[in-house]
Amino acid sequence: MFELHHLSAQEQWDWLRRGEVTPRELTDHYLARIERLDGGDEGVGAFVAVGAEAARDRADELGRGGRSTAPLWGLPLADKDLTDRAGLPTGLGSRLSRGRVAQQDSEISAVLTEAGAVSLGKTATPEFGLTGYTEPLVGPVTRNPWRRDLGAGGSSGGAAAAVAAGLLPFAPGSDGGGSIRIPAAMTGLVGLKPSRGRVPAQSGITSLGGLAVGGPIARSVADAAMLLDAMVSPDGRPPRDHFALRAAASPDGAWLGTAVRGEGRFQLGVLTASPWDDAYDVRVDPRLLGVLRDTADQLATMGHGVEEAALPGSDYPTLFRTIWQAGAAGIPAETDDDLALLEPMTAWLVRRGRELGARELGAALAGLSAFEQTVIAAFDRFDAVLTPSLALLPPELGWHDADDPERAFEQQCLVSPFTSFVNVAGLPAISLPVAEVDGLPAGVQLIGRPGREDVLLAIGAQLERRLRWQRRHPDCW
Q1: Tell me, what DSSP letter sits at residue 434?
Q2: Which of 36, 82, 216, 300 has the most beta carbons within 10 angstroms of its beta carbon?
């Protein structure tokens, strides 16, 4: 039986513009699905707060104002619980922040409002977004809609689980070491981490090391591009280097940019080694390597050049651990009682970060800057580099060590060794759900040149037309 959530975000926008559905009807449809599927012991656990009344008021307001060409007019989404939405709690996945209610919108929330979106609430994240799995002690855990005993990844785990379960058409996330691409790969979605500086409201430039940027999670390349365009230019005017999908560029919303039409032939590198291989016993599941090789063969058949790629040698693991710990040092846990409220992983990162001296931190930043330049130079002859999205299939809930943070950090690297170095290099990357392995999603990652999201979207659109992954979904649909 057809339901509204079966439509893509682009199709929903078209229906809204033609008056075939109202913002209130669409909002009510998704709120009903959230109420039915998200809560309880076996619920998805994608949301930590639902602002139903505010969402309906917002949808009614948009409906009274008449149909608009705003890039996200009337479309539901939700805010990751690391960002503020006025009137809703911002829990940051932590017992330390319990009870905090935002008084005003964060910058990215205001951008999405300007673009015409309707926020339904807040999606779950691990404590302060520091891990690649969303199982915070403040609870509840976020379950993978494909199999409820498995994790959905992190730190944008709630956002990805919501989209995969049909609780949202798409969702904004943030990515400081893989936090968009990891959950997208685990839940069968498209997850795009833009270049450093691409999304003005979440540029990464102001954060330590420039790691964390904002980007979209969606079922299709076109939907991801649509949300990314709005995050870049919420007033609907094409940016000077327009690269994605501008639904508002024509009255019927039918115009697609070159990237999403999927034109062009490119030179691609294939990378199977990671910068963590010498630090930990990284072993890519042979089935995922098979998915990678099959995808490379598909791309070659489509006319792209494909050859092997390699990473430069470096002391990347030590440098990244240093900067990750330093980034946690500013978490507002000032007393022993505050620290006792933190999870073991977070407390370990905070203590290690506060032990660092200025000289050690400066050396790490300089080392990572040099690493960025060597990676960009090593990839320079390629339009994009293909890697596995993950080294392992989604692990079971509780798989990461809850008591030994050193071990839990290592486990994260074993699952996702191909993601964090892309943040350090400031490059764009997209995870594409190209296959299934034993009934679970399996993805590949494409890494682009600086500022070349258009190439990643173009290649993704070509693969999507062949593989039609947007038609695959978990049983809860």
Answers
A1: E
A2: 216
The DSSP 8-state label assigned to residue 101 in this structure reads B
Q: Over the stretch 271-303, which tens digit does the pLDDT of each residue have?
A: 999 999 999 999 999 999 999 999 999 999 999
Q: Which residue, chain included where needed, has tokens 């094409």?
A: 238
- Alpha carbon distance 33, 27 (integer Å): 10
Model-level pTM? 0.96
Q: DSSP readout, 193-248?
A: EPPTTSSGGG-STTSGGG--EEEEEESSHHHHHHHHHHHH-TTSPPPTT--S--GG
Pick from 276, 270, 320: nearest CA to 425: 320
- 441 and 146 Cβ atoms separated by less than 8 Å: yes
* Count of C-beta atoms within a 10 Å radius of residue 108: 23
Instruction: Tally Cβ neighbours within 10 Å of residue 335.
Output: 8
Helix (H, G, I), strand (E, B) or coil at 287: helix
Which three-class secondary structure state does DSSP give residue 293? Answer: helix
CA distance 179 to 211: 11
pLDDT in tens, 449-462: 999 999 999 999 99
What φ, ψ does residue 149 adopt, rounded to 5°?
A: -90, 0
- Which secondary structure element, helix H or strand E, spans residue 173, and what is its range? strand 170-175
pLDDT on residue 259: 53
Residue 84 counted as domain residue: yes
343 occurs within a structural domain: no
Q: 287 is in which domain, residue-wise?
A: 12-315+358-471
The amino acid that residue 235 corresponds to is D
Termini Cα distance of the chain: 10
158 contacts 46 by C-beta, under 8 angstroms: yes
Q: What per-residue confidence (pLDDT) applies to 253?
A: 38
Q: How many CA atoms lie within 13 A of 232 on its CB side?
A: 26
- The radius of gyration computed from the CA coordinates of the chain, to the nearest angstrom, equals 21
C-alpha triplet 471, 9, 463: angle, nearest 5°? 45
According to DSSP, residue 319 is labeled H
In a domain, 83, yes or no: yes
Residues written for the chain: 477
Q: Are 384 and 455 in contact (CB under 8 A)?
A: yes
Instruction: State which H helix or E strand residue 327 sits in.
Output: helix 316-328
In a domain? residue 156: yes
CA distance 56 to 27: 7
CATH number at residue 183: 3.90.1300.10
Q: How many domains does the chain have?
A: 1
Instruction: Give the DSSP letter of residue 409.
Output: H
Q: Is the pLDDT of residue 161 over 90?
A: yes
pLDDT at residue 28 greater than cutoff 60: yes
Residues marked active site are found at: 80, 155, 179
Residue 150 has pLDDT above 70, yes or no: yes
